[in-house]
Amino acid sequence: MEAGFSEMRSELQSRDALWRRLQLECQQLHTELLKLREYNDMQENKIKHQSSCVHLTEQLENQNTELLLLAQSQEHQREELNKIRNHVYQEEEQSHCSEQERMKTEISDLTEELHQKEITIATIMEKASLLERQLKMELEIKDKLLAKQQLLDFQYKVIKSENTHLKEMM
């Protein structure tokens, strides 16, 4: 019976380590998103390099996809945790009262930690969505500025041509 508890404890610790890796990956993705935003800010001064903005959008979409995959993985881990929890409950019925309370506390802590990780992932997904919207708005502004700049360039060339013509006539 004690070996069963030890095995379950080991399994719970393994799951917890996996959750910590997932959280670290989420933090890394968030850091990458911040780096992408900084890179995008630098690109505002280089309107003619719009293809890089499109590339950033694709990267952001890829990261959103990765976040969705992480969320799906989280759901699978939650199901596994529920299976383990159910198994632990069955074992606790055959165990001593103090052992039952200790295991319930441990599962409650893991559930709370899982809930916190769900909140973290949801927050990251919201931030990624916001960054994506901001990037799209910035792209639209850049497109408008580029069109305006091209129009001004054209008008400048026309006026320059007229000036040249007037100088020749004088």
Automatic annotation (TrEMBL):
Biological process, per Gene Ontology: centriole replication; de novo centriole assembly involved in multi-ciliated epithelial cell differentiation
UniProtKB keywords: Coiled coil, Cytoplasm
Keyword Transferase on entry: no
Subcellular location: Cytoplasm
Keyword Cytoplasm in record: yes
Example of a GO cellular component annotation carried by this entry: cytoplasm
Coiled coil ranges: 57-127
Protein name: DEUP1 protein
Organism listed in the record: Ciccaba nigrolineata
